[in-house]
Amino acid sequence: MISASESPVFVSGAVARQVFDWRAAIEALRTTYAQPASAGTTPPRSVATVGQAWLRTLPAMPAGCRYFGAKLMGAGDAGVKAGIEYVITLFDRTNGRIVAFLDANTITAYRTAATSALALDALAPTGPARLALLGSGLEASNHARAIAAVRPLREIVIYSPTPERRGALATTLARELGVPARAADSGETAVDGADLVVAAARSYGEQPILFAHWLAPHATVVSIGSTIPQQRELDAGVIERSSVIVCDALEEVLHETGDMIAARRAGIAFQEKACSLHDLIGGGRRELAALPGLRLFKSVGGGLQDIVVAGQILDAALEAGLATALPMAFETKH
What is the pLDDT of residue 284? Predict the structure, then answer.
């Protein structure tokens, strides 16, 4: 038997930006990561390719979450130069119905920064901190906003290769966050003495942009730019010096990211000091956060983060009356 379901809704990027709240997203992720990890919760991402065209799928069914679904993103025959579009489809776990489609371009940047802030909140000492940003794009700027939601910031120092962009971001963040912010003329100058360091700008030649000897002994580092074997962001010495390495997707980070592959080739042992974000937030390896020395959170992103943050945005959009009802209905097979 087949019946028609209720109409789903659409949440645009503009609406997502209007209703999004950093603290609400971070707390939603905290609740999810406190649950025990399960292989069935977040299956491996899949990629279909023909020539330059590709389709990537990130499915997830977060424990304790009302929604489950997947993020789809794709590029056509012209490749990424023609642009990439993202969509998240959410299902309601109570009845299995498709309830929403969300433009996921902005959500992807939100979920990455919110997850980093959650990890940093568990790893970094409390109290006012000096933040260094390596990068001046969307990811770097959102990380500053997310971190400001969990830590009081004394100063933000930014380095990226283009003086105009790093200067503009310093002006923007100072205005938005009410925190002194300035541009630096080198990565080393930006990082010098920083309590918190965000690496969010791979070099064009895939060479490291952050080096161990730049870092203060107590620094907490967030790395989001080396997510596949071909990408580099961290000098191998950063991995060697880290007393703890927290990963959002443990096996994927340790075995499929360029930074960790390079560290392994250099003979650096890191398996024993690595743990998953689930273990850190859930308490299974919380003792690692108490170890002295450098702390590292390394992220590749994932569907679980997409679905949790998209669900939080959907609920906020529905409450505000900003979700668009779609003139459509899906047939339900019984």
Answer: 67
CA torsion through residues 163, 168, 171, 174, sign: negative
> How much is the pLDDT for 273?
93
Structural domain spans, the chain: 2-107+304-333, 113-301
Among 3.10.450.50, 3.30.2290.10, 3.40.50.720, 3.40.640.10, name the CATH number for the domain at 113-301. Answer: 3.40.50.720
pLDDT at 5: 53
End-to-end CA distance of the chain: 5
Write down the pLDDT at residue 318.
Answer: 96
Q: Could you give the CA distance from residue 309 to residue 33 in angstroms, rounded to a whole number?
A: 12
The residue among 179, 95, 115, 141 whose CA lies nearest residue 307 is 115
Pairing of strands 53-60, 46-50: antiparallel
The residues of the chain scoring below 70 in pLDDT are: 1-5, 203, 284-286
Query: Is CATH 3.10.580.10 the classification given to domain 2-107+304-333?
Result: no
pTM of the model: 0.94
- Using alpha carbons, list the distances in angstroms from residue 130 to 16, 195, 196: 29, 5, 6
